[in-house]
Amino acid sequence: xxxxxxxxxxxxxxxxxxxxxxxxxxxxxxxISDSATLTTGSASWEDRTATASEASTGLIRFSRLRxxxxxxxxxxxxxxxxxxxxxxxxxxxxxxxxxxxxxxxGDSLRFHATYxxxxxxxxxIAQVNSKLNLQYDAVVGTAxxxxxxxxxxDSLNQAITDLPVGGKILLVATVxxxxxxxxxxxxxxxxxxxxxxxxxxxxxxxxxxTVSNLRFGGNLTVNSTGTFIRDCYLAAAATMTxxxxxxNSKTIIQE
Length: 255
Hints:
Elements: E1 2-4, E2 10-16, E3 29-32, E4 45-49, H1 52-57, E5 59-61, E6 73-78, E7 81-84, E8 89-91, E9 95-97, E10 108-114, E11 117-118, E12 121-128, H2 131-135, E13 138-140, H3 143-147, H4 156-162, E14 168-171, E15 179-181, E16 186-188, E17 195-196, E18 200-202, E19 210-212, E20 215-216, E21 220-222, E22 228-234, E23 240-242, E24 249-254
Parallel strand pairs: 13-14, 14-16, 15-18, 16-19, 17-20, 18-21, 19-22, 20-22, 21-23, 22-24
Antiparallel strand pairs: 1-2, 2-12, 3-12, 4-10, 5-9, 6-7, 6-10, 8-9, 11-12
């Protein structure tokens, strides 16, 4: 199924096409793509569920993944099993074509653009018992962090969009964007050095969320209730506005 290529905290596994990755779940293994140069505004991975139309035609057009065939290789995890070319045909930078009958509507699909495809096997970096990847649904850092496998996103808004309700996000770098939290979630920073340099708004959809251990660089608006905002910092020029009916717990130091 796979062979071990290196030892240490990070393990490099050579995985064959068709391998069921769930067989490794008992070892706490989390797979991350090898680093690659990304097109501006693109992502190195994409999750989706196959539609009935896609299952019928076999054609998948990505909504956010962009890569250059030949410069990078595409891995597809379908229902927790890994597939690579020639199991499918790569079409340009944004599409793949699967053979008839390969896909079924509702299939869970994850696409990775990576290096390392050799004779039907692919090198994947496997982090074993990594605290970041076992405790959090998403890790938000810099674009370089994403390329190096140290983060899953470089946008907090995108991480929130991809997050399941009730999920957890770890912020490990400053992000420059106006952030809206519109679902129940836990967002944790790494202290004053992890900042949201923009406005931060919690809507009513974010009821019973927790935001902790980060810095708000812009105005903070809290329209949620049952929310914990603790061990946080607020920029000197920023303001906090809270809905009159909201009942929340806040521990915030204004600079």
